[in-house]
Amino acid sequence: MRDADTALIVVDVQNDFCPGGALAVTGGDTIIPAINALMADFGTVVLTQDWHPADHRSFADNHPGAVVFSVTEMAYGPQVLWPRHCVIGSAGAAFHPDLHTDPAQLILRKGFRAGIDSYSTFFENDRETSTGLDVWLRARGITTVVLAGLATDYCVAYSALDAVRLGFRVELREDLCRAIDLNGSLEEARAQMVDAGVVMVDPR
To answer: Is 144 helix (H, G, I), strand (E, B) or coil?
Structure first.
């Protein structure tokens, strides 16, 4: 059992990010059994969900003529234009049916503001608008967070980097994450996390 000051954050293990989904991450479903087992080691477990309105500005089809995975400029900076995914209330936005949700004390939904994306579990992509997770964790005496889920190079990495910036000790279970790896994004994200002091854990 991990210390009481340590929380597990399971990022976006949703149908649309698993094989057959709208933005499928290769092998995204293969990490679920081990994540379920890991939850038993933590007194604090958080699950997060991408939760987008249909008119979300990160969807390529909301930009006439835009190509999926192209990059556009938003008020807060560069934004990848994604396939339509994790639309509020849709089957794709639901947690994968194999993921255990009962151990979670908090289910945090992000990306529900149409004009701004939200990769990180701590901040939206303007790097300023808080999801409230920081306050919630600190109120429970959490000083270390362990991250697992989807996808390594986007929502997981952004969460890890923000957690370090907020003063948490951060571990990333590399064996329990899978990546999109868009144009070398995995290597770049991994380097940024290592440089920031994220403890990369892979017991395989």
So the answer is: strand
